[in-house]
Amino acid sequence: MNVHEYQAKELLAAQGIPVPVGYAALSVDEAVAAAGKLPGPLYVVKAQIHAGGRGKGKFKELPEGAKGGVRLARSVDEVRANAEEMFGQTLVTIQTGAEGKQVNRLYVTDGVDIAKEYYLALLVDRGSGRIAMVASTEGGMDIEQVAHDTPDKITTILIDPAQGFMPHHGRALAYALELEGDLNKQGQALARKLYDAFIALDCSMLEINPLVATEDGKLLVLDAKMSFDSNAMFRHKDLEALRDETEEDPMEVEASRHDLAYVKLDGNIGCMVNGAGLAMATMDIIKLNGAEPANFLDVGGGANKEKVTAAFKIILSDPSVKGILVNIFGGIMRCDIIADGIVAAAREVDLKVPLVVRLEGTNVEEGKAILAQSGLPIVAANDLGDAARKIVAQVREAA
Fold it and tell me: From its phi and psi, is residue 363 left (phi > 0), alpha (psi between -120 and 50) or beta?
């Protein structure tokens, strides 16, 4: 689960981490009111979307030369003008894709006199099984280019979760950022607080870009991007309340309500599979046969009829889907339950695209009988290879 920058900063501030004063706004008037609470005379107006690269982003509806999604304003009137221009517009960044994201929230913060920008992130390094603290002296909007051109300017510090954060980790971070004097002490203290926040909030990623040293010698978190382990949300009902579903794909939101693992893709063959590994293999074999999967959808090992019906309806709600491949290996899940769900969903949504079903495992004969007796145009497959060939052929024939 992701949150907006202003929400991430509020969470960090609650952990004693220094952030600039700022206020979220859902309208132009709220943005102006937010500026009125700040000392000025310099303000920063930031578009709030779940994507990085906002500063260099472009608004679809505005002229090519228009400013990006992070803007400086030197008066309250400029704050209003920027807010009027940004609200409701579609911001395209390097991370949104060409479709972009609509700006429905702004964040107005106090301006900061910056002496130096740094990059700092914490994330789970699955290769080592440790938490990685990634740092660079070259923070700012071009950090991706730094990583590509000069990877030696990026330092990774691994922290064993069994041991936890130790003083030498803080010293290593301060050294990597080339901090001296009081800034060195601040850097060590900040590293520990960020690590503690990362653990306490069950984060999967915490990125600060930039972390800045101000002209008066303070370290300050100027921007923050935070995501959480969805499997840990049962411990954090307060964090669940921060979820902004308007930033997510509607089909993925609906899938999450039914505890389905769903990711929309760019192809035209919908997939419903039980088990992540089998789902990946199903997508691979579709591609092997010259087509593209429209989604990853894992209904899990213990799905019931209602869950299968919901999964089927989610796939069909995607207008790009021109055919569906159901690939189920019944272990804990019974094939007859899958078949009941498929038939119920197909009847409810008035199925108009080819459907190929491959069932194997527990109660497979009962499941096949249910499909055969349904009266629906369902094509049975003997194995996964046969299923992939049949659905690809039927989609091409229908086109």
Answer: left
